[in-house]
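Technical note accompanying the year-one report. For the benefit of new consortium partners, we illustrate the data format agreed upon in the data management plan: each record pairs a sequence with a structure-token string. No post-processing was applied to the example shown here.
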Amino acid sequence: MQTKPVHPLFGIEVDGVDLRDATPDCLYPEIRDLFERHSLVLFRGQHLDDDEHTEFSKLFGPLEDRSNIRMDGPPKISPVSNVEEDGKLLDPKDQKLLNLKSNMLWHTDSTFLPVPALANILQARVVPSEGGATEFASSKAGFASFAPELQERLRHLFFHHRYGHSRAKIDPELAKQALFTMWPDQKWRAVWTNPVTGEESLYIASHAFAVEGLDPAEGQALIDELTEAVTKPEHIYSHQWTPGDVIVWDERAILHRGTPWPYEQPRTLVSYCVSARDIDGLNTVKPQAA
């Protein structure tokens, strides 16, 4: 296993590994250690099929069902694509494409769910000739750059999260769909401490719409200010996908967003989110942990 950094602040690329060989006792412990320490791990040339992608993802924890957010069936791999099941490309005005454009806001996955995500395991299958990069920024490095007074204040704050809030920024009608309204608002501590490394990260997302104890305008202004602070250009790693790339990132410590591409060209990524557990520090960000 050979490694090299992908960004001065976070992220590691791993060569010489076939993810099909990973088991709880082989390769995964080393990969999990890199995940905890570097927050993002890149593997190239993997070309996993759905079953192989599923088995690798399950090593990190329970799979979140992102194809049916009600979670009333077995988890399924989630396509991030402008291609319909019949192979046709989405119309630029289709709300499914508008939903993809919502992912171009800086966000953390699943903060709007009763159980948020620990990790995302994302693989490229079809990429356009240009554009379509995914950008990442470390909220761990961002938090570490804050003044001690701001860090202490954040340790005592809670953010409220709502799925429809991020979708309304793209299209108010999109936000009214049942998919984006079926969950009650969630409240999470503004700082997530990694129980393995002891490092703290700002836990924020485009789904965050309020700050406990602040009026709405003041709370939104703080959310916007903090998001901007941790996503400065020098803090960003932009990944231009090639088919077979797999990126695993720590949802507790990384913000990400998609970027546009020519929508007359197909782009298909496939993803699993893995739900966080108390061993991942979930119990420390719950409201009762105050």
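Partners are asked to follow this layout when depositing records. The chain has a mean pLDDT of 92.
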